[in-house]
Structures are given as structure tokens and as C-alpha cells.
Write a structure and sequence with these properties.
The complex is a heterotetramer, with 2 copies of chain A (321 residues) and 2 copies of chain C (368 residues). Chain A is of the alpha/beta class and 321 residues long. Chain A contains 12 helices and 14 strands. Chain A folds into 2 domains: 176 residues, Rossmann fold; 129 residues, Rossmann fold, CATH 3.40.50.920. Helix content of chain A is 40%, strand content 17%. In chain A, helix 1 packs parallel to helix 6, helix 3 runs parallel beside helix 4 and helix 9 crosses helix 10. In chain C, strand 2, helix 6 and strand 3 form a beta-alpha-beta unit. In chain C, the strands form 2 sheets. Chain C has a 5-stranded parallel sheet with strand order 1-2-3-7-6, with helices on both faces. Chain C has a two-stranded antiparallel ribbon with strand order 4-5. Classes of the chains: A alpha/beta (321), C alpha/beta (368). Chains A and C meet through helix 3, helix 4 and helix 10 of A and helix 5 and helix 6 of C. One thiamine diphosphate sits at the interface of chains D and A.
Chain lengths: 321, 321, 368, 368
Amino acid sequence: MSITYLEAIREAQARALRDDPRVFIYGQDVGSFGGAFKATKNLAQEFPGRVIDAPISEDAMVGSAIGAAIEGMRPIIEMQFADFSTVGFNQIVNHAGAFHWRTGVPCPITIRLPSGGTTGSGPFHSQCLEGLYALYPGLVVMTPATVEDAYSMLLEAVAIDDPVIFCEHKYLYYHLKAEALPTEALPVGKARIARAGRDVTIVAYSAMVHEAIAVAEELAGEGTEVEVVDLRTVKPLDTDTVIASVARTGRLLCVSEAWPWGGVTAEVIARVATEGFGLLDAPPQRLNAKDTPVPFHPNLWTSHRPTARSICEAVRRLLQL
Amino acid sequence: MSITYLEAIREAQARALRDDPRVFIYGQDVGSFGGAFKATKNLAQEFPGRVIDAPISEDAMVGSAIGAAIEGMRPIIEMQFADFSTVGFNQIVNHAGAFHWRTGVPCPITIRLPSGGTTGSGPFHSQCLEGLYALYPGLVVMTPATVEDAYSMLLEAVAIDDPVIFCEHKYLYYHLKAEALPTEALPVGKARIARAGRDVTIVAYSAMVHEAIAVAEELAGEGTEVEVVDLRTVKPLDTDTVIASVARTGRLLCVSEAWPWGGVTAEVIARVATEGFGLLDAPPQRLNAKDTPVPFHPNLWTSHRPTARSICEAVRRLLQL
Amino acid sequence: MVQSVAGVQGASVVSSLREGIVAAYRWMLLARVLDEKFASLYRAGKIHGGVYLGRGQEALSAAVGMSLRPGDVFAPLIRDGAGRLAFGETLVEAARTYLGSALGPMRGRDGNVHRGRPRDGYLPMLSHLGAMISVVNGMLLARRFKGVPQGVGAACIGEGATSTGAFHEALNQAAVERLPLVLVVADNQYAYSTHSSRQFACRSLVDRAVGYGVTGATLDGTDVAECLAVVGKAVRNARAGGGPQLVVARLLRLCGHGEHDDAGYINPALKQSELGRDCLAVAEERLRVDGWATDAELEAWHGESVGRVEAAVNSVQREPTPDPFQETWCALATPRLKDGFPAEPSAARAGTVAENPPVAAVSAVPAP
Amino acid sequence: MVQSVAGVQGASVVSSLREGIVAAYRWMLLARVLDEKFASLYRAGKIHGGVYLGRGQEALSAAVGMSLRPGDVFAPLIRDGAGRLAFGETLVEAARTYLGSALGPMRGRDGNVHRGRPRDGYLPMLSHLGAMISVVNGMLLARRFKGVPQGVGAACIGEGATSTGAFHEALNQAAVERLPLVLVVADNQYAYSTHSSRQFACRSLVDRAVGYGVTGATLDGTDVAECLAVVGKAVRNARAGGGPQLVVARLLRLCGHGEHDDAGYINPALKQSELGRDCLAVAEERLRVDGWATDAELEAWHGESVGRVEAAVNSVQREPTPDPFQETWCALATPRLKDGFPAEPSAARAGTVAENPPVAAVSAVPAP
Ligand SMILES: Cc1ncc(C[n+]2csc(CCOP(=O)(O)OP(=O)(O)O)c2C)c(N)n1
Ligand SMILES: Cc1ncc(C[n+]2csc(CCOP(=O)(O)OP(=O)(O)O)c2C)c(N)n1
Ligand SMILES: [Mg+2]
Ligand SMILES: [Mg+2]
């Protein structure tokens, strides 16, 4: 048996629906159609009345999820693309994010954001918004990189008493496969050493973890041992695991598919510089997408985002510093 | 004569309206009422038909500003509070921000965001969103700290061919005064040495510049010379001026009133760590607001955001590192 | 609690009408007195931030609060002091939020009109206009999912808030799901300084009902009997499965947007018109004319209201304000997921989160 | 260009009707052939990303494009291939965007249906549904400010997009400002897989007109004559100062949401109904029956369309694709304000920005 990242997301939702009567799914085309990416395939049939098509009203989708959560439900909201969550932004960041702090009442909603670039998707079907949501207090932001994490973290997202922004990477949907679903998982908030190494640390998350691993494999052939840290959640951010890795390697490159200003790479480097300054043997480096909208044409797109090649170059430069 | 930060904003708009027939102002209650904060006082009377009350429709306000800009106008949009711009978020970041890159046609709109905390304003009338808008490509983000900059930068915001997010701090509106309006200004994108010093650099912007200067004055009495860098714009960010200052002092504290994850302090520290690593004599430090919504009660509010006292403590700690 | 004004026959109609108006009048009066107290505290510099009054809108607001039952959902807006009280908010709770008491439902974290107890169906408003309606929808949907009695959800907004996308998405959502939502629009002619002619171009906002496929009704917000009748009927319709109800009230805001605002922009002709009548004075006049209340009774009610408000505010003023060192500074309900930021004192980083103080159950209580 | 179908008397009515329908038919046919070409390129793996067709909506779309004049504003949506052509888009331009040619108006930066030339009044859509309407408003407002001829602004959306807050805010804004906006809603029964019963609960979306204070009209989108008449009238109304016009067309999407979608969810009964008729076939039948076109003419028009489409696509396929090393990677119109990020090659940081390739002026051209 083999299971894809996308199927793992579907299976996690099936299990959440099966195990917990408080769970329901709400989003455009998630019902009998099974969602734009088929992440809810057959769920409406298996769980009648609990997987519901929403009108094209992202603000109301999130607002009503908050209401349902107040009543003790555990809604999962599927945004058709992460990019469209900007229309429901206010309810997410100002209402859900602030709700528990203001009222003492938890707001357990999970918002699934099909994220990241795929070829030909262009400026509005490609965005990586984890750094956007992490800015706001009160939100947990998950960025699973593996089939196993897609499954276990989505189950945890639903179980957690707080609003969770679940950034699932569209490029991994079909490309990434595992043998089986996991039976255990690291706790939420813990980063993972995706590959051990002693010469340089690459901190990455989501699809970039796989680019980083490819780089590690390539450089291993040249005798450079790259350690890859998969952040798993970007908020909370597991500073300890990152710093422990930098303590071993002395060199840090942080990679993200998001835009270059602020975001995860700035936060990681700021934390390491602040708390692990003495561990660094060279200036920490970062690699992000370019500071333009995500381009439509593959020629531009592959230059816009970090790739194994550009990461590899950055590592080589870093090793020379 | 003495002029406040708020009056400077009004005067800049008056001058823009006077000098450039393409300019108009659109926002809730900006017309004969003169705006919630009186930033457009008398402008509707002085410039009939060019200062227009908008319905409570932030999305349409920004969308129509984009349309007017396409037709060659130079709209100024007043959000009643920065916090409410989240409802017009999509038009700002996805439409205005991406417009020139996608189409080759400039989108010169200015969006004024009355920003930042004042006592008793609470979670939704206090936010600092410069780090939010700086995430997105295609936007210029200004954060004037002085009466002079409020005036000259707003004039430049209107003149620039790109969408500008103009974060004006409500706390400075009435508190900050200058003798006269400036006749010249630093170019947009250049940071300013607000106070020279040789022992430690505080990078700040907007209202925090004044807290930093208060700290510098206090510490000067103890023989510590604090250099204060006022960023003026957070995007583009003037890395060179910051690094030149760190080169002089060897120590960096970056202060912001925004939430702690990501944002300006992370970006500044990441840039200095990456490009000016060797200049640092101690780990760079940051100070932000706490990671909760902005509290209503002054007891909580004054602990939530950095103050001269907490900045001073942070500088003392940094000097010991 | 008064629920129906119409539908009862003969003498009992009159007595039930009288009871309803008397009860409403007393909620209105209590809210007016409380508002005036907040205004005087504001002028004395004793309140942090703004103060927002319901002057001129008490009849409508009381009718909404009175038409609801325990188990219903209520999402009031800034001018709904009367409705909040009628729905079961205590004077102490209102005062605690305005004065930032640590013992209030918002514990000084949020303030003034941003107060409620969500678990009791009493929602604390978000400032962003229009945002509460879909939240009410979600609560009603959840009850449908759970198979428990759904109750009615009432959301109040001003005419200005009808221009928001949030209003539209939520009313449409309620219509598609056929939820028992009662959406009450107080068209008080102004949104802050902006006249409604700059807000919409239809004849009346009730003309929107057909476009959503919901039932519409209008009423004169200065006439408490009409408020009780029309709002009561809309709530009954919703309860009976009639789907969403859009109720549009005509009235005039008889105060500034907030107490900082002298409302000099309000057209004097409007103040002189029927719309400009003070619903409280109109109700009082009616009680007098119909012989339903004597001068002595009216005076006693007023005195009692003043006494209760003074007592509540006095006691709250002696309560502790929030202590930043006791504050958890944790926005999450799951403290173990709190992110650790370097500059915070380490105690806060380890962060044990204190439980929220217990809040009393809300219920629609009888008239004061 | 055909502008009015009604309003002319006697024999000229018929001849003008005939001319209109013939012209519309030829735009529809050309758009259909172009769509089919894109679909076959998609199946051959020659297109990056999705392909979205206008099958079944060509009559409505052509009517919109034909009713506009140079100087008007047009904000089409994904199914508006016919209207784009009628408004003046060239086949080459359409093909360039789908194929990502560096010479196209979007230069490979944006693609497929996201194309236009804003300065010519032809707006490139944002993906976020409903977002274009207020942009059209802004263009019309700007012209009022400038005191230049305002023209008419047409924005097209699907019934699904009427559920967005953006739709509501923008239509209301247009009504308040009484702008010459024609908002055309293609109610094709589905938004992706979602039936319109999950999208709104009113009888017809035209019932929304009164609630905004705008004029409403409906039409049968399978009947090109009705499309021309009703859309033409709405455009004339707007042009004559009649304020915003809401036109709601009844039709059925005769294709998948995109070419990846087999649309298996569409109710077969709908396909069999009047709504499910193919407007192109209906128009062709009418031309035949009324003797307005011979078989030979029809065949010639088809052949000509195929030839033009093939020629355009063939030439575009030989054009250069964007070169990442030539790309400025600068989102700003003001290169000196470009932020410098450490990891970028220094050439890009210094960043001189190439001018955009000149684009031809758009104008409503005569029927092909
Ligand atoms: C989305 C949003 N934009 C702007 C504001 C600022 N604001 C607060 S109250 C108000 C006027 C509200 O008018 P209306 O809805 O008519 O209610 P009223 O005050 O008349 O009762 C405005 C513009 C806001 N709270 N939310
Ligand atoms: C705000 C927003 N949410 C979701 C989407 C994803 N989406 C793209 S097209 C579509 C369906 C549109 O349906 P409709 O408006 O009826 O137009 P049609 O495709 O039927 O022509 C959806 C949901 C989007 N583009 N924008
Ligand atoms: Mg109002
Ligand atoms: Mg549709």
C-alpha cells in the first residue's frame, strides 16, 4: 500500500469525522464533489450532513465556523486556495485569533489552506501565507512537509482548542507518497531533524524540506554533511531544536518559499542571532522567493522560488564564509 | 507657530489637493465632518467634490481607488482605523500590490492607516500593521515618526507611482509638535540617525523612536551613548544605514510596537545578522509588544507594548552581553 | 418576560399590551440611566477610551432583548444597552467592562461595548462592523448539527453596517441555510457623521429582503408598542421555522456617535421630525395618557433605576483593575503551544495559564 | 459594431436585427473555435495551468462586448472569450496569455484568463471573485472627477460570485454614486460543482436590484437576440444616466469548470431543459431558418474562424517565452524604491527596469 500527502489529508479528516461527532467540514465544493483537490473525496457520502458546500463567502465561512466552535463544534474550513483566505482574513486574524484571549472561551477551528506554487498557477493560486498568519496572536500555524505529518498534524489541529492554520502544500499533494499512515507522531510544536549532518544546518518547512534533502544528498557526495531541520509548525516555532542543530553545525541557512520580507526565515534567523549568537561560525543566511507576485510561466516560476539548485549554491557560499 | 503631527498630515493633504488635480480623498466621514481624527478638517470645504465620504465598504473603497489610479488619479484612502483595513486586505495586497507587476500599469494609491495604541482603545483600534503589509511585494510601507516626516512623506506617498501604506501613529497625532513644516526631506527609503551615539544602536520607527530617544537621554546621564536609527520606511528597509550604525556601535536593539513574531524587528535583525555579522560585538536583541491582542485597560496596555522603561532595561542587558 | 403583544384577544390584549409596554419602558429607562452614568463618568475622565450611547434607540433594543428567551443567541451592537439588560446582562457586568474591572467578563482585556458571554448565547461584538452576523449563523448551524433546540439568533446592526461585505455574506448564508436569524437594522440616519444617502440608494433597506429570499418588516423605532409587535413577530416567525427575518427600524440617533462627538452634523429638520422623537418620552407619555402608570410610579421607577445604577457603579469602582503581573499574556487556550519569545521574562515564557473567572449563567430575567 | 436592436422601425428593424445576430454569431463562433483550440492544447499538455471555456455563454458574452464602445470599460470573467473578442481583444493576445508568450500583455507573469490592458479600459481580472466590480466603479468615478466622457463600465460575474462581500460592496457603491455600471451576472446554475440552490435563496438574482436601488433585467442566455436586446438596453440606460443596471442571464455552463473537470455533477435534467440549449447552435439554427445565412456562408465563417485561430496560435507558439534573466524581478513601478534582499544576485539588486512592451490600442472592431 502507498498513500499520498493528499490522501493522508483526506484520511485524517475521515478519522476526525468518525471519532468525533463535533467535527464537520465546510468549504466550497467539499460536499459530494469532494473538493477542488479531492481532499474530501467521498466524505460527504460517508458522513451525511457533515460535509457541507459553502457559498463563495469566505468571511461568512470563517465567521460561522467561529460560531459553531463557540457551541462546542470542531469545524474544518477548506479554503479552495490559500490565496482566497485573504477575503476571510478579518474573521481569521481578528475574530478567531483574539477570541479566547478576549472571552476565555476557546475557538477550536481548523482552516485548511492549499498553499504554495505549482507550475502555471500564477499570482493568485500559489501563495504561501504561513508568515502572514503567524504574525497574529492566538493562531497556531502548521506547515507539514511529510505524508505522516499531514495526517497526524491535521488530526492534532482538529483536537487543539485553538484556531489552527493548516498550510498544506499543493505540490506535495500527489508527488509525495508514504508506505502507511503513522501511528505515532512528534508533539505539535516540535521540529524534526529530517536528516542529520554536522557541517551546516538548513532550516526549512513544507515543500522546501524536500529541496533541502535533495541538496543534502547531493552535497553528501562531496563530503559535506548537511543537517535538515523541518520546522513542522512555524508558530509556535521550535527555537530549541533549531539552536541545538546550529550548535552542532555552526552554520545556518533558512529556506522558505514565501516572499523575502519578514516571514519565517527572518524570524528563525532573528531567534538564532539573538539566542544562539555564540554558536554561529558564519553569518546566518536565508533564501526566499523573490519579492514579486508568483509568476505564471514556469520559466519565471522556477527562478522565483528557491530550488535545490539555488539552495545548493547558497550552502556552498555559506560554507565559504 | 507650532504644528502637530496630525496637522502636518492635514496640511500635506491640503497641499497635495492644491498642487495636483489628480488627487482626491475617499474614506468614511472624511468629508464635511473632517474625519474621525480631523485629519481632513475643512478639506471638503476647501476642495469641493474632491474629499468624499465612503460607505462602510473597505473592500470597495480600495478597489475603486485602484480603478481611479488606472485612470490616472492619485487617490488617498483614509481607513478610519488601521485595524479596519483587514476588511479591504485582499484589494490592497493582491490587487494593488500585484497590479504594476502583472500589467505594467502603475497603481499610485495612498492608504492612510491611523495606527498604534492609545489608552483604552483595545484590540481593534490599536494595531500596528506595517509588518503585515511589508510581507507583500509591490507595496511601499511608510512609518513616519516626526511631524516633518508625516508631512513630507505623505506628500511623497502621493507622488510615488506605487501603492503606499502610510502608517501614521495615533498616539503622535496630538502629542507631537514641531515649529514649522519642513521644506526639505531625506529621500524615501533612507533611514535617519535620530540621535548619534557610539555605544549601542536602537533601531526603531514611528512612536517607538520617541521612547528610544527618551532612553538615550536617560542613559546619556550614565555615560552611555545610544544611537537611535529611525527607519522612516519599513519597506524598503534601509539596511545600509542600520549596518553603518551597528558598525559604529557593535550592539543592536530593534524595537517595535507590533507583535513579536516576524515583522520589522525580525527583518532588521535578520539583515544585520546576514550582512553585518562581523560588526556585532554582542547578540542583536529585539523588543516587541507581547503576543496577545492589544489590551483595553491601561494597566495591561502599558505592559503590552515596549516603553522607555522596558527599552532601557533591554539596553542595559544588551550592554552586559 | 413579554413575548407577544398581538395574538391575544379582548381585555387580555390590553393588559398584555400594557404589561409589555411597562416592562419595555422600565428596561429603556434603566438603560438610559446607565448610559447617562457612563456619559458622566466619561466627562469626569473616569473611563478609558470611548463611550457609546443608545439614546433614542432604547425601544427597539429593549424589544429585541425582551423577545428572546434563554437559549437564544443575541449579538448586540453599540447602542443596545437596553436589549442587553433585557436579555439578562447585569448592571454590574456592564459597568465592569466600561470601567475595566478585572472581575468583568472581559477582565480588562477588552472594554466598553465589547462585552458578552459567548457560552450563554450573549456575544461580545467585534469592532469590525457586520462581523457578528455569520457568527450567529454558525451557532444556529451548530445546534442543528447537534440536534438540540436551535432557538433564535438575533443580530443587531446599524444602517451603516449594511454596506459591509460581511453583512451580505452572512445574510445570504442564513438564507441559504434557512436559519432562524433575526437581523435587526437600526436605520438611525447616520453612520458616525455620514448620512444614509451616502450609504445606500434603495428606498428602504427592507427592500433587500426579497433579494435574499427572506422575510422583511419595518417599524417606527420611536414607538415602543410597534417595536414590540414587529420584533416579536419576527422572532416568532424565525422560531416557527420561517427562516431569516430582516427587520428595519426607522429612528434617529439622539446623541453623538460617541460621547466625544457633539453630532453637530445632524440635520435639525430630522430632529424636529417624527423620527426625532425620543422613544423613552413617547413611551412615558403613552403610559400616562393611557393611565397605565401614575406619576408616582414613573417617579419611583426612575428613582429605582438611578439607585440601582449608582449602586452597581459604586461597587464596581472599588473592584480591582487588571494586574499585568498576574496576566498570563497567553492568547492561546493551549498554554503548551505558546511560542517563546526571547525578550519576555522567563516566568511568562514557562507560562502557567490561570483559569478564567467563572461567569454567571445568563438568562432573560423579568423586568426590573 | 451593432449597438441597437430595438428602436429602429420597419424593414430596418429586421435588417438591423439580422446584422446584429450575424455579427454576434460570428464572434460566438470565433470564441468557440478559440476555446476548442485551447482545450486541445490543454489535452496535449501544451498549456501551463488550467483552461477555462465559455461554452454555452457565448451569446451573452458577445452581447456585452458588442454593446460597448471604445472608451467604455470592460471587466470580463473567465467565460467571456466572445465578449473579449467583440470588445477588441485580438486572437494573438488571447493566445499569448494562455501560452505564456513574453510578448503578450501579461508577459508570462500572469496567464490564461488573467489578461487585459487596463489603460484601454480592458481590465485583467483578479482571481478573487467579485473584486473587479469596484475597480470599474473607480474608473468611472475618476472620469467624473476629470470631467471627461464617462462611458459605460461593464463587469461580468457568475452567480457564485454574487455571494462575495466584494460584489455587494461594489454594487452598493455604484448605486450610491449612481455610476454607469452594467453588472452582468451569468447564472449558469453552478459555481464549480456547487448548484445555485446552495448559493442564494431568492427566486432570481434580479430580485436584488430593488434592494440596491438599481434597474434590473433578466434574459435567456441561450437566445442571442434576447441577449443583444436586453444587454444593449441596459448599456443604453447606463449611458443615458440611468444609473447602475443589474442584468441576470439564465443559462447553463456546457463544459467543466475548467478543462480538468468532467462536470459529472451537472443534473442531466438541466442539460435536457431549455437552459441546456447551446446558444451557438440556437443562433445558427435561427440564421438558417430565417434565411439569414446559407449553409455555404456558415461553413465559410467556420472555416475562416478555424484558419484565423490556427494562424494566431501557430505564430504565438513560435514566440519567445519569458527569460528569468531578463526579468526585472521588481514589483514596483519605482525601481529606486526596490528593497534589497541579501540572497539576490547583485545585478538584480541594482535593478534597472525594462519598459513594458508597447501594447496596441484597444477598440471595438467590426465583426470578423
Ligand atoms: C469595517 C469597519 N469599518 C469602519 C468602522 C468604524 N466605525 C465604527 S462605528 C461606525 C459607524 C457605524 O454606523 P451604523 O452602522 O449606522 O451604526 P450606528 O453607529 O449609527 O448605530 C464606523 C464607520 C468599523 N467599526 N468597522
Ligand atoms: C473569493 C474566491 N473564492 C473562491 C474562488 C475559487 N473559485 C474560482 S471560480 C469558482 C466558481 C465560480 O462560480 P461562478 O461565479 O458561478 O462562475 P462560473 O464559473 O459559473 O462562470 C470558485 C469557487 C475564487 N476565485 N475567489
Ligand atoms: Mg447608523
Ligand atoms: Mg456559475
